[in-house]
Amino acid sequence: MNRQTLIAAAALTLAAAPVLAQTAPAPTNAEPGSEAWLRMRGEAYSRAPDSEQDPAEVAATARLNAEIAARNTAAAEAEAGATAAFEQRNAEWRAETARLETERAQWEANAAAANAARAQWERDRAAWEAEVEACRRAGRVCIVPPPPRP
Questions:
Q1: Do 117 and 150 meet the contact criterion of CB atoms below 8 Å apart?
Q2: DSSP letter for each residue of 71-102
Q3: Which of 37, 42, 60, 135 is the most exposed place for a label (fewest CB within 10 A)?
Q4: Over 70: is that where the pLDDT of 117 sits?
Q5: Is the pLDDT of residue 23 over 70?
Q6: CA 4 – CA 10 distance, rounded (Å)
Q7: In this predicted structure, what is the pLDDT of residue 21?
Q8: Given 3-state DSSP classes, what are the helix, strand and coil percentages for the chain, each rounded to the nearest 5?
Q9: What pTM, to 2 d.p., does this model score?
Q10: Cα separation of 57 and 64, whole Å?
């Protein structure tokens, strides 16, 4: 290596030293909001002793927590209802789609049968016309009924 490369490597190592010296807290499986989770984030929570608690504030907090819990329960019930309604509509849609696909397949089968019948009639008609023309050319009177229509 040449001298400039060594100088550049040394400068980069010195510049990166503070970054390399930092250590991230070890990942834990702490539940968000738990004391261990708060400590991992560098926060600390310590509950004040009961003697220092304001009863009005404790009651207000309990009331607010109850309201939040009630709203959360209502939201969960609404979501469950919406999910059930969606699943029902989705099942109805799938049933209707299957019914329409069956009708479409039946229509295609009917159309194919009608096309085949029409083609057969056209062949029969062409054969009848050829037979009638052969009779006329022979100078005979031919009484041959035409093929029935499909």
A1: yes
A2: HHHHHHHHHHHHHHHHHHHHHHHHHHHHHHHH
A3: 42
A4: yes
A5: no
A6: 10
A7: 62
A8: 75, 0, 25
A9: 0.45
A10: 10
